[in-house]
Specification:
alpha/beta; two-stranded antiparallel sheet; about 25% strand; globular
Length: about 140
């Protein structure tokens, strides 16, 4: 089963993602960027991985952009690049697409979704990032 890490300081946002994604994948949560970095590093060091991360931008302790950069740097140190790296989607309340795209490319995220979001928006974001849907499970296209 695919594994998704949902990172947001808002319990209600995390729960919204879980409600949408839990029928398709195993979902784990982190409440800030530092907790996400720690969880990803631990998982990769143990030989596991997450298939997808939804990362909020504005959070206490470590914001999402800094967390994504740190995760990307750690992946590079392990030789995970290109198709071997985690898919990371930024979740944001920003409504300015140019700022979002700059943030996305500066930190190394694969895409973004704006909040508030709908189930249809989340599913389309997954499809846009190479995830297909089998019966009750999430599959990665070309893997």
């Amino acid at each position: 089963m695919k594994k998704i890490l949902i990172v947001d300081d808002s319990r209600s946002i995390r729960q919204s993602f879980i409600d949408i994604l839990s029928p398709l994948a195993a979902c784990e949560e982190a409440v800030n960027g530092q907790a996400a970095v720690d969880r990803v590093k631990q998982r990769l060091n143990e030989g596991g991985r997450f298939d997808l991360i939804f990362m909020d931008i504005i959070m206490p302790e470590k914001d999402g952009l800094a967390a994504v950069k740190e995760i990307r740097d750690f992946e590079i140190s392990l030789g995970r690049t290109g198709a071997g790296r985690l898919k990371i989607i930024i979740a944001t309340t920003l409504q300015d697409p140019s700022r979002i795209l700059i943030a996305q490319y500066d930190c190394g995220a694969d895409g973004y979704i704006t909040k508030p979001f709908t189930k249809e928006t989340v599913m389309q974001t997954l499809r846009n990032n190479g995830f297909a849907f089998g019966i009750r499970r999430l599959q990665t296209v070309n893997q």
